[in-house]
Write a structure and sequence with these properties.
- By secondary structure, the chain is mainly alpha-helical.
- The chain has a domain of about 55 residues.
- About 55% of the residues lie in helices and about 0% in strands.
- It is built from two helices and no strands.
- α1 packs antiparallel against α2.
- The chain is rod-shaped.
Length: about 80
C-alpha cells in the first residue's frame, strides 16, 4: 500500500461520488462505491505514512569480528 495507490483511490472515489454519472447503466449506487473508495484511499495513505515512519526510524548495526580493530591480548606471565 503506497501513497500513489491511496491518491488514485481518492481520485476515483471523488469522481464517482461527486459527479452526475448514470447509475442505471451500471445497476449499482455509484455514490456508495465512491465513498468506499475515498475511505480506502485515506486508509491506504495513513498506513503508508505509518510504515514509512517506522522504516525511517530503523537502523542497522554492523559488527566486525576478527578485523584489524580487534586486539587480542595474551599475558603468559601470570
Amino acid at each position: 500500500m503506497g501513497l500513489g495507490l491511496g491518491i488514485t483511490l481518492i481520485v476515483l472515489g471523488a469522481i464517482l461520488s461527486f459527479t452526475d454519472l448514470v447509475d442505471n447503466a451500471v445497476g449499482t449506487n455509484l455514490d456508495t462505491i465512491g465513498w468506499i473508495l475515498l475511505l480506502a484511499g485515506i486508509l491506504s495513505i495513513v498506513v503508508g505514512l505509518i510504515m514509512n515512519g517506522q522504516r525511517a526510524r530503523s537502523h542497522t548495526v554492523v559488527e566486525r569480528r576478527g578485523g584489524p580493530d580487534v586486539v587480542e591480548r595474551r599475558d603468559d606471565r601470570y
